[in-house]
Structure formats: C-alpha cells, structure tokens
C-alpha cells in the first residue's frame, strides 16, 4: 500500500491558525480534490473538526485518543497513526492519503512513500507548522508553478517528492 502525505505549507512552514486554513487557493483545493477523491484519507481529530464533516467521495479515518469521539457511519475512528495504516492494509487499499494536521504529519513523515506539497509563496502568522524534513531523503519527481490571480491569493508550487531508497 502506497502511503502518501498531502499538505499546503508556507515558506515558514506554517500550515494553519486557530484550527483553520489561512489562505484562499482555489487551484490548490482542486489539486487536493483530484488526488484524494475515491481514497481513504487519514487525519487528526482537530483537522476533522476543522472540516466539520467528512469530505465527499472519500472515506475518513480519524485519529483520536478519545474512543467515544463520534463520526458518521462509513468512516472510521482509530487510536493511532499505526492503527490507521493497519486499517488501510487490512482493507487491501492500494493507497492512503495522510492529510494532516501538524501533530499527525510529525509522525507520518517516517511512514510515507511520497509527499505532495503545495509550497505557498507567503510567510503568514500561524500556530501549526509542517515539520522540517531531510531533503536528502527525498527527490522531486514533479513540480508545477501556479500564479496568483483572483481565485488564488498567492503564487504557489505543487511539488511531488518521492522517498529516495536507502
Ligand atoms: P491534528 O489535526 O493533527 O489533530 C490532533 C489530534 O489528533 C490530537 O488532539 C489527538 O486527538 C489526535 N492525535 C494526535 N496524535 C495522536 C496519537 N499519537 N495517538 C492518538 N491520537 C493522536 O491537529 P493540529 O492542531 O496539529 O493541526 C490542525 C491544524 O492544521 C488546523 O489549523 C488545520 O487547519 C491545519 N491543517 C492544515 C493543512 C494544510 O495542508 N495546510 C492540512 C491539515 C490541517 P484527541 O485530542 O481527540 O485525542
């Protein structure tokens, strides 16, 4: 099973503030939708709550230490990232996407095979950050530049990194 991580991060690694996203990037939302539709998406409880409900046409796997946390039927509550990945394996999935937030990314970098990173050309204030990663452990296999316009607040680059085999 391929484990993919997807994130939009600023130049200073900020990814959110007050449990919300901090930019309006319509083209990035389209990329997120294109890549994750039809797949299982793994997320922390706070990211799930910031969305309010499961995203359409995707199966949510929500990580929480609270066993009583309620999520709608057809979606899954698990206790740890390891359990989320085991669930994907037991369901014979080809691929899962880890979609955040900061707490989950921190642990996920060691598990994932590829990272789809929207590199936003901005340095906003925020309270959650994408972790630093060792660039030598990753190679860029795709990179596409997007320019700001009326629907996209900032320039950004969509970059796919694959793990370099040791
Ligand atoms: P997370 O979404 O990572 O959720 C944190 C929660 O996940 C914890 O409170 C806990 O839930 C559960 N959790 C974390 N680690 C474990 C573990 N080891 N075992 C069991 N449960 C665990 O929260 P963050 O605050 O880090 O991130 C949310 C922020 O990130 C928001 O601002 C959001 O908008 C932003 N974001 C940005 C993205 C981007 O691409 N720019 C993408 C996704 C989110 P509990 O407390 O219930 O036990």
From TrEMBL:
Query: Which positions fall inside the DHFR domain?
Result: 2-163
Q: Which UniProt keywords apply?
A: NADP, One-carbon metabolism, Oxidoreductase
Q: Report if keyword Oxidoreductase is assigned.
A: yes
What is one process in the GO biological process aspect for this record? dihydrofolate metabolic process
Write out the coiled-coil annotation as residue ranges: none
Top enzyme class, one word, equals oxidoreductase
User: Which InterPro entries is this protein grouped with?
Assistant: DHFR, DHFR-like_dom_sf, DHFR_dom
Pathway(s) the chain acts in: Cofactor biosynthesis; tetrahydrofolate biosynthesis; 5,6,7,8-tetrahydrofolate from 7,8-dihydrofolate: step 1/1
**PROSITE patterns annotated for this entry?**
DHFR_2 (PS51330)
Output one GO MF annotation: dihydrofolate reductase activity
> What's the catalysed reaction?
(6S)-5,6,7,8-tetrahydrofolate + NADP(+) = 7,8-dihydrofolate + NADPH + H(+)
Enzyme Commission no: 1.5.1.3
PANTHER family annotated for this entry?
DIHYDROFOLATE REDUCTASE
Q: What does this protein do?
A: Key enzyme in folate metabolism. Catalyzes an essential reaction for de novo glycine and purine synthesis, and for DNA precursor synthesis.
Q: Which family does it belong to?
A: Belongs to the dihydrofolate reductase family.
Q: What is this protein called?
A: Dihydrofolate reductase
Instruction: Write down the species.
Output: Belliella pelovolcani
